[in-house]
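step 3/5: co-fold with NAP
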Amino acid sequence: MSLTSAGTDFGGDADLRMAYSSSKAALNMLTVHYAKAFAKSDAYSHIKINSATPGYTATDMTGHRGTRTVAEGARVIVALATLPDDGPTGGFFNDDGTVPW
Ligand SMILES: NC(=O)c1ccc[n+]([C@@H]2O[C@H](COP(=O)([O-])OP(=O)(O)OC[C@H]3O[C@@H](n4cnc5c(N)ncnc54)[C@H](OP(=O)(O)O)[C@@H]3O)[C@@H](O)[C@H]2O)c1
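step 4/5: write tokens
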């Protein structure tokens, strides 16, 4: 069971955010396709392509109601931007690891 089909993502009302959540699904799919394409390239196979969710973060987008600070939300992004050479590619992550979107 994934977060969205289980109804736990987006506060349990992903069905009310059709455009937003669909754009995120498209982004996850692009992540997989770019990762596979880059992995096949002699010139670009060293570049890792991943996506991340910061969690519900206090930014302009959430009207600063998010329960996580920007520093907490940025943690997974910094981790992915500084992966070692043998780090993952083509995944979707939060602070706890792979997200079953
Ligand atoms: N906050 C959350 O709880 C949360 C949770 C999950 C995922 N996310 C994702 O994290 C990402 C960043 O969200 P955020 O919470 O940091 O939002 P934010 O504070 O509202 O920041 C959005 C950023 O996007 C820029 N932007 C908006 N429209 C743009 C456009 N047409 N062209 C170029 N830049 C544009 C804004 O630039 P200006 O400042 O110049 O307008 C701003 O820097 C989003 O993709 C969001 O879906 C956020």
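step 5/5: annotate
Residues 12-98 form one domain.
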